[in-house]
Amino acid sequence: MTKTDQLVDKLVRFRQLSFIQIAQRTMVTLFPIALIGCIAGVISYVFLSPSGFLGSVLYIKRWLPTYRFWRAISNDISVVTVGFLAPYAAYTSAQLTTRLHRGEIPSAGITAMACYVLVFYHGVRQNGSVIDMRYYTANWFIVGVVIGYLVGLVFVRFGQQTTINDFQLKSNDILKSAFSNMKPILLALTVAFIFHFSYAVIRYLGIDMAINQGIVEVLNNHSNYALTMLISLLATILTWLGFAESLSISNEMFRSELFANLNYALTHKSNVHVPYPFTPAALYNGFGQFGGVGVALALLIAIIWVNHHRNQRAVAKASALPVFFNTNLPLMLGAVVMLNPLYLLPFVLLPIFNMLVASGLIMLHILPPLVYPVPVGTPGILAPLIGTGGDWWALVWAVLLLIVDVLAYIPFVKIADRVEDWLQGQRKVGEPHARD
Predict the structure, then answer these.
(1) Longest dimension (CA), the chain
(2) CA–CA separation, 324 and 349 (whole Å)
């Protein structure tokens, strides 16, 4: 057995772990919901927003006076899909867990969703919203999966297998079936309430606000090159772990540096010698996010190019529009990138590689620093061109880096192909595969 076969065998064993099976099946199950929500989001903030990439290019305000109405509609679709993906994940994860270990227990899913909402639903702070939407979005996807998995295990241990598919059952039989699972329902909700109470105390005492204020104060100070790389690395690792873009490197981070750079460029009619050439927002958003976190555009191209599974190629093609506009969530779920150790190295290291190359080019004055504002939803491959103020060499280098990223992803996509073959029973480790 070759080293590659040994790696495939280890990856297969990892994929067969109970929690990993549940997490990855939850990703695939919710892929259509995430895809619809992300496409609606792209329409909202890229096309229908005057500050969006296409909205600004096409002057949406001039020829579509009702753009606010249509943007609100598309944003509503995005909110009820991607905006509530974490509790959806809790429901799906719990259902899958009970099916895997015990059988059908319909109340497990709704209990898991209730537990998730209970943990993060708070009305203790005055003049504050009882629902903090940031805890319900895809940013907390993995938390929903974990809560659903744990609730599912509670039902596996203490619940009774029931069914709601038999319409011949009488109402008394249905009630008896429901009461048979009151123990795991109460147990799960009690544990959730303990977390709810603890978090409520933290919010009531203002501890979370103090922490947020401390973080804001740090981000209002000046960054340095090592901090830029560290923040970028942390953001990418968190995304791979299932906190989908929970640490967003936006223009609000170290904004004093961004303003200083822009002011210098406008005053001196040049952005070559700006005071802060290596800001996190400029380097990471300019060269580390071609298609979203983890250079998702390169992964998408590699999957379409060399993957031999029709479903995987279909996922990549369906995700092309959001990924092109730097929204990689559908690809992360459908291609099972989150929590997949095979993709960890390229997913985390390729953005850092791109940033190191870009910073070297800036240091040698081959490229000017990125200082100009980039419209929301600008395709990652165009961000260096716009951020440098129209330097075409920035676009050339971005394309070259993307090509390198695609080539770097290809070996990992091929190994993922072999893992899928093995899991589907199409061949044994070490055997060649045929294109389906």
Answers:
(1) 81
(2) 20
Tens digits of pLDDT across the chain (436 residues)? 688 888 888 999 998 899 999 999 999 999 999 999 999 999 999 999 998 999 998 999 899 999 999 999 999 999 999 999 999 999 999 999 999 988 888 889 999 999 999 998 877 655 555 666 778 998 999 999 999 999 999 999 998 877 666 556 566 666 776 778 899 999 999 999 999 999 888 877 878 777 777 766 666 566 677 877 888 888 899 999 988 765 565 555 666 777 888 888 888 888 888 888 888 778 888 898 898 889 999 999 999 999 988 899 999 999 999 999 999 999 999 999 999 999 999 999 999 999 999 999 999 989 999 888 888 889 999 999 999 888 999 999 999 999 999 999 999 999 999 998 888 775 544 454 444 4
Long-range CB contacts for residues 362-369, cutoff 8 Å, separation at least 24:
362/277, 362/278, 363/277, 365/272, 366/393, 367/391, 367/393, 367/394, 367/397, 368/270, 368/271, 368/272, 368/394, 369/261, 369/271, 369/272, 369/274, 369/277, 369/278, 369/282
Between CA 102 and CA 16 the distance in angstroms is 17
Q: Give the global pTM.
A: 0.89
Which strand (E) or helix (H) includes residue 197? Answer: helix 182-204
Instruction: Name the nearest CA neighbour of 272 among 378, 370, 130, 200.
Output: 370
CA–CA separation, 203 vs 313, rounded Å?
45
- Contact (Cβ atoms closer than 8 angstroms) between residue 136 and residue 86: yes
What residues have CB less than 8 Å from 241, skipping those under 6 apart? 142, 338, 339
Quick one: tokens of 274? 């700006």
Residue 111's alpha-carbon distances to 142, 156, 306, in angstroms, are 17, 13, 42
Separation CA 153–CA 108 (nearest Å):
9
Cα–Cα separations (whole angstroms), residue 304 to 148, 298, 315, 406, 408: 33, 10, 9, 11, 14
